[in-house]
Design a protein that fits this description.
Elements lengths: L1 E3 L3 H8 L4 H7 L4 H7 L13 E3 L5 H4 L7 H5 L13 E7 L9 H15 L4 E4 L5 H4 L3 E3 L6 E4 H11 L4 E8 L2 E3 L9 E4 L4 E5 L40 H18 L18 H6 L6 H11 L3 H13 L25 H15 L1
Parallel strand pairs: 3-4, 3-7, 6-8, 7-10
Antiparallel strand pairs: 1-2, 5-6, 9-10
Organism: Podarcis lilfordi
Cofactor: Zn(2+)
Family: Belongs to the peptidase M54 family.
């Protein structure tokens, strides 16, 4: 294992900046906000810890990238910021989600509400789910894992046509595995930052995906007719477990973060860290480090305390908020599975203690 430990001076410069104007902007945060943000460079902070690499296959080891401090983010001419005319995040579900216990609508509402808390101040809209056949995209059976896959690039073209005029970005989400081109085995997601679009699959977040018991494995290995989408009818979708919901929240907010112009974080443990595999993704925390938090706050202008309160509230709401009209017997099935969020909830509570003491 290798710990990436930056000096106090380096972390302070990455957060506050040596640019006089940006340092003056930092002084506009109130003392409690600065108390939390300054944890980034406080020696021995229990809130924001150095990144630990566990193997050479981890992202930073295998994908060398330049770091991005606050000043580089702030002055980036290519980054996009919401405007009064384009200030909504749209999420397009593709294919079916959920199982007999949790419907697509319920799962999507959990993701929508979490995304609105994370990108505090923006409105998130869930578009009506569409079957794969409506996208017209190519598909295949993976030659190694024998599961269905759909073409990520073609899905981006489909999303471009569907992007509403008031959208800051549109992201497609699916429980079906993705591939970017014939020579690739798979891809977790693909994005066009200039177009404000992304497509992401949660298929490999199913705990059974890599096991011999995976129910999405197909027996047929022959080439499928390109226009016969009947193979997707009744295709397996995993149970919406607490761990799958946690992984989905991480991925969705991480990838939308890229559309805002946030690069992979190499400063501290952060949801914007790159990940090369599921084990590494699971090690990432659910929220941002102070450097990335300042980047997002500068783009959206939210109150830091109110954002943390919104995240805490989401983790305290066990129901979906859509129980109206349901029988008392049906309501328990709408419980939001929050067991996997306990560590994140405790961490947010500690951050709130700093902001409210």
């Amino acid at each position: 294992m290798k710990v990436i430990k930056h000096s106090e001076e380096v972390l302070k410069a990455a957060l506050v900046s040596k640019d006089t104007q940006l340092a003056k902007l930092y002084e506009k945060f109130n003392p409690k906000e600065k108390g939390l943000l300054n944890e980034a460079f406080r020696p021995g902070s229990v809130l924001f810890k150095p990144i630990t690499l566990h193997s050479e296959s981890d992202w930073i080891s295998s994908h060398p990238e330049p770091t991005q401090d606050f000043a580089q983010f702030y002055h980036d001419p290519c980054r996009k910021t919401p405007t009064p005319q384009k200030n909504r995040i749209y999420v397009q579900p593709i294919g079916s989600f959920g199982d007999s216990r949790v419907s697509t609508d319920v799962y999507m509402k959990w993701l929508k509400d979490y995304c609105e808390a994370f990108y505090y101040g923006l409105i998130v809209r869930i578009l009506g789910p569409v079957p794969v056949s409506h996208t017209g995209c190519p598909f295949r059976i993976n030659e190694n894992t024998y599961n269905l896959q759909i073409h990520a690039g073609h899905l981006l073209s489909y999303l471009k046509k569907k992007k509403p005029k008031d959208a800051f970005c549109i992201v497609g989400v699916t429980m079906i595995d993705l591939y970017p081109k014939d020579s690739w085995n798979f891809v977790f997601g693909q994005a066009s930052l200039t177009e404000g679009m992304g497509i992401f699959s949660f298929a490999r977040y199913d705990s059974d995906f890599y096991s011999a018991n995976y129910k999405g494995t197909l027996k047929a290995t022959k080439k499928l007719p390109p226009s016969d989408y009947s193979v997707f009818d009744g295709y397996y979708t995993p149970e919406i477990t607490s761990k799958l919901l946690l992984r989905s929240c991480k991925t969705l907010t991480h990838e939308i973060g890229h559309i805002f112009g946030l690069h992979h974080c190499q400063w501290l443990e952060c949801v914007m860290q790159g990940s090369n595999h599921l084990e590494e993704s699971d090690r990432r925390p659910l929220d941002l480090c102070p450097i990335c938090l300042r980047k997002l706050q500068s783009a959206l202008g939210f109150n830091i305390l109110e954002r943390y309160k919104a995240l805490q509230k989401w983790m305290e709401e066990e129901a979906t908020g859509t129980e109206e009209g349901l029988s008392s017997e049906a309501r328990p099935s709408l419980q939001k599975p929050l067991e996997a969020f306990k560590e994140s909830y405790d961490w947010i509570s500690k951050c709130l203690e700093v902001l409210q003491k």
